[in-house]
Amino acid sequence: MKKFRFPLRPVAVLREHHQARTRDAFAVTIREMNAAEDRLHAKRTERQELEALMHDGRRETFRPAEEISILDAYQRFCAEEKKLEQAVASAHAAMEESRKIYLEAHRAVKVVENLELKARTEHRLEVEREAQLESDELAGLRVGRRLAAATVSTS
């Protein structure tokens, strides 16, 4: 029985390494996107607290100087929130691009795996066919010997 040898093994190894690198890059972009979303969530919480402070402060006495500083702070929070929203959007786009690259690498690995599976199946069938031919040949030799022995003993 001859040993199975897959000629595309080096290609499979290279594709598996590429897939591992793209999977790691994808994981990094997911972490970055989650961190950006966390920062945005924290900023929104701070803005809501400031809005509550502004609302509660208006129930009491009106102090124009305080209102101006609070309004200034509120505008800064809103501007920072917009920047964080843009950061989340760009992190999401980067994650989607990284995901697409990873899926392409995964498909490339699957193609080689399927080719190897087909080659192994063909090899197994060929080995089984050769074994069957040997078995048939041995059975034919035995029958031939019996016939030769039977013709010698009858003569």
Can you describe what's shown?
- The longest helix has 91 residues.
- The model has no long low-confidence stretch (mean pLDDT 89).
- This protein has a domain of 104 residues: Helix Hairpins.
- 7% of the residues are buried.
- It is rod-shaped.
- The protein contains 2 helices and no strands.
- Helix 1 packs antiparallel against helix 2.
- It has 155 residues and is mostly helical.
- Helix content is 92%, strand content 0%.
Question: What is the fold's blueprint, element by element?
Answer:
Layout: H1 9-59, H2 64-154
Helix pairs in contact: 1-2
Which key features would you list for this structure?
Helix Hairpins; 155 residues; mainly alpha
